[in-house]
Amino acid sequence: MFKQKNRLGVLSFLLVLTLILSACSSGKGEAGSVGKPTTLTFAYELPEAHPWGVGAAEFKKIVEEKTNGDIKIELYGNGSLAGSGREIQEGAKIGTIDIGISSTPMAQLNQYQDIFSLPYIFSSREEAWKVLDGPVGDRVGKKLSEHNLVHLAYWEDGFRQITNDKHPIDSLEDFKGLRIRVPESDVRIETFKSLGASPLPMAWSEVFTALQQGTIEGQENPLSVVSSSSFYDVQKYLTISNHVYSPATLFINQNKWDALSEEQQKIIIEAANAGRDINRKLNKEQDAEMVKDLEEKGMEVTVLEDVQPFREATKSVWDNVGKSIGGDAQEIIDEITSSQ
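-> structure tokens emitted (340 positions)
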């Protein structure tokens, strides 16, 4: 009798212990710690050879190594999971995509990001990085929480340049009536209207074909995009205008973020910053080389030495952005300009 009771006691203890361990292992904030790993999808719209793709590969490597395989990153470049930045950020918002990068379209979710798209607000990469990686960038990034997204880091799209197949651009007069594709951004549309062009907002996935067919005559993008997207095949003229510096926001779905442990979140941030640094370094190193390469591929390059007339022409855009966003937008604009 005693032995039977003793056995029952041991079995009861083991059952309770199993239940306790089971409850602990299924608790929130321990994604991938027991059983099969957690898989996170990572989507971006540009080619894998682009600095975004190189940065994404580094992000994947760090996350998988430092979590000992508890988190797996599935990369979907070249628009294979969603064809545009807008689609990627909307997918991440509702949870059909876990991690994504988007540039100019982020302002459709977080209007404050239009501030970074003001023409000539940054005169150098280093100036932009100081703002983006500091309190102002953090302040703007945190506003994504209103849209079920967590801001991870500011990667780089880069300084935007202009291509077209009509004529060289070296004065305001050359913009007159030029049908130029711009991202779906009110600030970018107003910028090119103020320069005298006819801007046409268009999804990224449609741009090459539209240039090829003559639906549009030009477009504006960083050199890395001009090169990796083979725009030299359908555009003759390249203008180095540096009219806008475009950051690219790396973000994660809020629910997926909340399911990670604190240690896993730290690793994700570390990987996001490492990918950012590689992305920025490649863009900076490659810009000078790409101008030469694009010339060799047949493009005629014009450098705008005096941008003051273009600054003057786009002053109204600055006035309108602060007013249209409202809140503390003008305060943020003033903080950026006073730090330069």
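Residues 37-338 form a domain with the D-Maltodextrin-Binding Protein; domain 2 fold (CATH 3.40.190.170).
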